Amino acid sequence: MFRTRVFAAGVVVASAVVLASAVPATAHDDLSSSSPAVGEVMTTAPEAVSLVFSEEVLPLGAAVIVVDQTGRDWVAAEVMLDAATVTAELASGMPDAGYELRWRVVSSDGHPISGVVPFTIGDGEPLTRTPAPGAGEADPTNAMDLQSQSTQENQGALRVLMIGLAGAGIAVAVFLLIFFLRRP
User: Fold this and answer.
1) Residue 112: CB atoms within 10 Å
2) CA distance 111 to 57
């Protein structure tokens, strides 16, 4: 009878720990829409660009640049965040040309996400880039790539640490439960 009680208590505790520590799978937030839209040909230069995400983005590390073929950044002011919307004002005098709206934000789940929205103003040619040799690797001169890579490595180490601590906590809880149930 005693062993049955210990076994039943162990099953109950193990089930409770597994169910309590289960975290629902979450996907990163997505870019829902942008102004200008991907591939849009605008008749006049916009005064600002905006990005709308599927969830509220975190107010740290948000970066938006709008570059032309020469690499000039046309963003004229600080990036503004309002819940799930990110806005950046542009400098006046943008000529007819192709541009890229490059963005990076931290999604609501804490992971950095980024993307590129190409657009064209007037009769300008769309902006085309030639991939650099080894384009699959992070460019060591690009601070955004380095920061993103560093953040992902830190998050991986943190996950391993948290899983180890959770396992140790479960082991201690089971040991204490068995210890106290075996006492006369």
Assistant:
1) 21
2) 10
All structural domains of the chain with their residue ranges: 27-128, 137-184
Residue 102's identity, in one-letter code, is R
CATH assignment, 27-128 = 2.60.40.1220
Measured CA to CA, the distance from residue 112 to residue 147 in angstroms comes to 9
Which pLDDT score is estimated for 81? Answer: 92
C-alpha to C-alpha distance for 124 and 35, rounded to whole angstroms: 18
pLDDT in tens, 98-138: 999 999 998 888 888 999 999 999 988 888 765 555 544 44
CA distances for 6 relative to 56, 170, 182, angstroms: 47, 16, 8
Which of the two residues, 5 and 32, has the higher pLDDT score? Answer: 32
